[in-house]
Amino acid sequence: MGYPLQPSLDADLLARYDVRGPRYTSYPTAPHFRSDFSEATLRRHLWQSNVRTEPRPLSLYVHIPYCQSPCFYCGCHREITRDTSKAEHYLGRLLQEIRLVAPLLDVNRELLQLHLGGGTPNFLDRAQLQRLMTTLAREFRFSSSVERDYSVELDPRLVRAGDLAVLRDAGFNRVSLGVQDFDPQVQRAINRVQSEAETLQIIEECQRLGLRSINVDLIYGLPRQTARGFARTLDSVLGARPGRLAVYGYAHMPELFKAQRHIAAVDLPSPRERLELLQLAVERFGAAGYRYIGMDHFALPEDDLARAQSRGTLQRNFMGYTTHAGCDLIGLGVSSISHIGDCFSQNLRRMPDWEDALDRQHLPVARGLELSADDRLRADVIQGLMCLGHVDYADIEHRHHISFGVYFARELRRLSPLIADELALADANGIHVTSRGQLLVRHIAMCFDRYIDTTAATPVRFSKVV
């Protein structure tokens, strides 16, 4: 039993459960990583990942932190600059890190996934992007499979004529475009003014060039956003027919993200208006034939994301929903996160510290976590809920050698009020997320999170569930 085509919305129910909680791009989540996780520990896990009976394929995430101007809604780790020379300086250090990490991995391990994120990856010019790809191709074994997934995030405002063909020829087969909202008054309020016509032209060119998939990011709950204006944006984007759509809820946390202090709380939609914006997007996507993947994500049935969900190979990690479960994730660049075997590690977040570590020929590790048996068990349960909408008791018991009902007796008691509200169903075989519970799946997953006291207010470091 997986996710139905479309989640149902009950405004009163969503409002009642709209607490803060993790997005579960990892379990345990990043706030629980430890500073005593060392470079030696990471090297040990890298070595262990090579000597497995069947070494896993590789997935690379490369972080490009620069943006030319601040988007006021953004909570990403980025640096604002118009000094393009910084890109060359950063690229030099990034190539150092690649040459430091690659020899620690078996040369026969296939690079099945690659993602350039940011920041703004196309802050790098064409020559710099080609140098990066050439170095990666030399140091890692690029997959020749038709299933390989090489993607890049693009700021449409920085795309120039010929850029997309260069990216395709460099090996990229997917792109992700930030749109958020085409409404001019919203764009001015968030300091991201971009042309609707030029953005749609980019989508059309990606399709003409034969790129495997295009993703478009939208945000609801932005300042000065209205149902009428957002409906126009939805109609425009749906008319372009991208393979994937993501609609994120804006998380207003100015105490954590300085740029958000430029947004006046009075300009934000009310909680009721915010839910109306979400409902509008969900209904329009469903009517247009997009399948609900989970949380914020939708895809056409023929897209690889929907197919991976049907096959049971959908995975959620620091890149969001991805199509290839079973890869070791290597994070490159300042602040990036790796998931190798049974550990997480994160690179240093301050640029000078990251550069200094590389100049001393050290892996730039800031913190991490070695997973316990309990962590691995709970991660499997949460992945099942987040990616497939269900957890099979027998499967979990077989893989982890536990009795589900005994091990998770307390968690099942926590789940019972959510079952009473018909967010989930539980039978003799497992737990199933209902259409009423799909948009609250983070809340369901929190029942199995050992690091969260679900009876107390969730710390402010997490965003609202809806």
Task: Describe the 3D structure.
With 466 residues, the chain is α/β, with parallel strands linked by helices. It folds into two domains: 1-27 and 372-466, Arc Repressor Mutant, subunit A (Orthogonal Bundle); 28-330, pyruvate-formate lyase- activating enzyme, CATH 3.80.30. Helices cover 37% and strands 20% of the residues. It has helices spanning 11-16, 39-50, 85-101, 126-139, 163-170, 184-190, 196-208, 227-240, 271-287, 304-311, 351-359, 373-388, 393-400, 404-407, 409-420, 441-446, and strands at residues 58-64, 66-67, 79-80, 110-118, 141-142, 149-154, 174-180, 213-220, 244-249, 291-294, 297-299, 315-317, 320-322, 328-332, 337-340, 343-347, 365-370, 390-392, 424-426, 430-433. Strands 1, 4, 5, 6, 7, 8, 9, 10, 11 and 14 form a ten-stranded mixed beta sheet that branches. Strand 8, helix 8 and strand 9 form a beta-alpha-beta unit. Helix 3 (85-101) runs parallel beside helix 4 (126-139), helix 4 (126-139) packs parallel to helix 5 (163-170) and helix 8 (227-240) runs parallel beside helix 9. The radius of gyration is 22 Å and the shape is globular. The model has no long low-confidence stretch (mean pLDDT 93).
